[in-house]
Amino acid sequence: MSNLSSIRDRVSEYLLLKGISKYRFYQETGLSNGFLDKAGSITSDNCEKICYAYSDLDPEWLLTGRGNMLRTYDKIDEENDRKSASVEVLVQKIVELSSENTLLKKENENLKKKIVGYKPLSEDDLKDNIAAEPGI
User: Fold this and answer.
1) Would residue 90 count as lying in a domain?
2) Quick one: which of 58, 102, 95, 61 has its CA closest to 79?
3) How far is residue 51's CA from residue 62's CA, in Å, rounded to a whole number?
4) How confident is the model at residue 74 (pLDDT cuts 50, 70, 90)?
5) How far, in Å, CA of 98 to CA of 101, rounded?
6) Do 91 and 59 share a structural domain?
7) How many whole angstroms separate alpha carbon 75 and alpha carbon 34?
8) Most buried residue, 49, 56, 73, 100, by CB count within 10 Å?
């Protein structure tokens, strides 16, 4: 197909190459039945659903028609490395937040213990404290 074909045309070309039925496509992407047969533009959300469902489909080709339909292993490996790094950062953040959460729970328990032992001052005690303050 030419570079002037639509995204829907390129999706149909991919499905034909891979032997994927339209029904299966709709099931795997969550897009509505008849999506491929409609006219008009496709939202970025829908393109994202398609790329998520078919990781071997090259997003640049899907959007522009340039390049290869199928991603090379180098691109897939590069994306996997990027995702892996992102996961590692998220795991580290979870560990940090978990540690902070544990410290805050301990502090909260200590404050609860102090509150339980707290006895409010009577009005007489307040008056005595105020009178004892210098400069009042």
Assistant:
1) yes
2) 58
3) 9
4) low
5) 5
6) no
7) 31
8) 49
Considering the domain architecture, whether residues 42 and 84 belong to the same structural domain is answered as no
Residue 136 resides in a domain? no
| Each residue's pLDDT tens digit, 102-122 | 999 999 988 888 887 777 767
Q: Which helix (H) or strand (E) holds 95?
A: helix 73-117
Q: Do 45 and 51 touch, CB atoms closer than 8 A?
A: no
* Structure letter (DSSP) for residue 18: H
Distance from chain centroid for Cα 63? 22
Looking at 51, 71, 91, the residue that finishes a domain is: 71
Answer whether residue 60 is part of any domain: yes
Show the domain range for 110: 74-119
- pTM tops 0.85, yes or no: no
Residue 21 lies in a domain: yes
